[in-house]
Write a structure and sequence with these properties.
Helix content: 40-55%
Largest sheet: 8 strands, mixed
Shape: elongated
CATH architecture of the largest domain: 2-Layer Sandwich
CATH superfamily of the largest domain: Bira Bifunctional Protein, Domain 2
Structural class: alpha+beta
Strand content: 15-25%
Distance between the termini: 47 Å
Radius of gyration: 25 Å
Length: 408
RNA sequence: GGAGGCGUGGCUGAGUGGCUGAAAGCAGCAACCUGCUAAGUUGUUAGGGGAGAAAUCCUCUCGAAGGUUCGAAUCCUUCCGCCUCCGCCA
């Protein structure tokens, strides 16, 4: 959630931020108006409380009873204001970093660089799904019968490739000082909301388990962040970096008809994720660091990719700054998003109350998340980029020590 | 799933209706002292919110949310978490 103090102090700045994220900036005025009334009422209510406390102390029971009636009314009123105020705040996304391109949607994203060589084939490159079906690596039809659309069976070498990717990522990131973690894949609503995922829930994009009122995570980010809920870091311990592995679940409610074939966009996939708790003064550095790690991983796999700076209109709800890495897919003759790298600044830390102490006046840590490997999409990228003329697939050299085979 | 116990400040731990936002100890910080020295003395140290230029004042918070009461850490209800025993189980 946004800093209320900041909305009061710099409403114009927040308005601009909201506008750039395609959110009605009138919210700010509505909020401030409500906030003023809330403050007046809070004062009134507190004063009444003070009066009650004194009367009570002096055992003036009859008088206290009268004051108490008044307090009940005031507090009921205050609660309405409070609820309304909170609902407005919940409608406000994080405000973007001023260095980021202002834009309406993905068309305004800025390609920063293209890295690696696109493979040259002396044949017509196949789509990953065609390859995978021939090699018996993915089966969508059977998953359809069992679980419905947007599920898939990963089979045979594809499974081993997944574990190779996971092991490769873990080994590399642990060597860099990331702490490995396998987090829960279900979370309570208040935790999700604290992590700024109210939208994920409200848009029905999250799977919900009504019996237990739990939500399946869309990313391990959702449960790695709140692992330190209510904690106070010593600034000497920052940045604290985690590498998490989890299955991710998404209903893809808003994307009916989009990428319906194959495993590019599915309800369930596995992901290795990086997560950092950073000193606010150094979170930009941390953001660049995470992007650097992502690039290093892509280069190790020798996959051609480009780095895209996401425009304000296309940015995640809680993000102040976001990069995507898009990998070249020869079978589709285009780049597709495979990784993202976000700085949520204090938007999430305020929501789940993660602070740090040290010299300086900022108290909430900054939280950042970055994909290491979204396994499904990496398998897609590998199949398409490493395919051979006869419809087989060479395993990237960096992964061979984990797969123990060189070709599928 | 059944039975019981517990949940207090950075930590340990008192506190069962009225100056208790909370004893004491530890830890931390500051000052002083200085040779019983990996010591002593004194002071200080929770968070949120509101008012105020500030000093400061008010208010809320003892797992969470409600309730009883003039007044609740203390009583009641529900929920959450932890522990022990039984059952089940990868």
């Amino acid at each position: 959630m946004l800093d209320i103090e900041l909305i009061r102090q710099e409403p114009e700045k927040i308005k601009k931020g909201l506008q750039s994220k395609n959110v009605d900036s009138k919210l700010v005025d509505d909020f401030l108006d409500l906030d003023n009334q809330w403050r007046d009422l809070t004062k009134e209510s507190d004063d009444a409380r003070a009066q009650l406390n004194v009367l009570s102390q002096d055992r003036k029971i009859e008088e206290a009873k009268k004051v108490k009636e008044n307090i009940k009314e005031l507090e009921a009123k205050l609660k309405d204001f409070d609820d309304h105020r909170n609902s407005l705040i919940k409608q406000m996304p994080n405000t973007p970093d001023s260095d980021w391109p202002i834009g309406k949607d993905e068309d305004d994203n800025v390609v920063m660089k293209e890295v690696g060589e696109k493979p040259k084939f002396d044949f017509e490159p196949k789509n990953y799904l065609a390859l995978a079906e021939n090699l018996n690596l993915i089966n969508i039809e059977r998953a359809g019968k069992v679980s419905g659309s947007r599920f898939g069976y990963l089979l045979n070498e594809a499974v081993l490739l997944e574990f190779a990717l996971v092991n490769f990522a873990m080994e590399m990131l642990v060597a860099k000082g990331f702490s490995p973690v396998i987090p829960p894949v279900m979370a309570r609503p208040e935790v999700m909301i604290g992590m700024g995922k109210g939208r994920f829930i409200d848009d029905k994009d999250a799977f919900h388990l009504p019996e237990d009122d739990l939500y399946l995570v869309g990313s391990s980010e959702h449960t790695i962040g709140p692992m330190h809920m209510n904690d106070v870091f010593d600034d000497k311990d920052l940045p604290k970096r985690y590498v998490g592995f989890s299955t991710c679940f998404r209903r893809e409610a808003g994307s009916y008809g989009k990428d319906t074939k194959g495993i590019l966009r599915v309800h369930q996939f596995d992901k290795v994720e990086m997560f950092s708790f950073a000193d606010p003064k150094k979170s930009k550095e941390e953001h660049e660091f995470l992007l650097g790690v992502q690039e290093e991983m892509m280069q190790a796999l020798k996959l051609p990719y480009r780095v895209v700076q996401i425009s304000t209109g296309d940015m995640g709800w809680g993000d102040a700054a976001q990069y995507d890495i898009e990998t070249w897919l020869p079978g589709e003759n285009q780049y597709r998003e495979t990784q993202s790298c976000s700085n949520t600044t204090d938007f999430q830390s305020r929501g789940v109350n993660v602070k740090y102490k040290g010299p300086g006046d900022n108290k909430y840590v900054h939280m950042l998340n970055a994909t290491a490997f979204a396994i499904g999409r990496m398998i897609i990228a590998i199949l398409e980029n490493y395919q051979t003329k006869d419809g087989h697939v060479v395993v990237p050299e960096a992964l061979q020590k984990y797969t123990h085979f060189k070709e599928i």
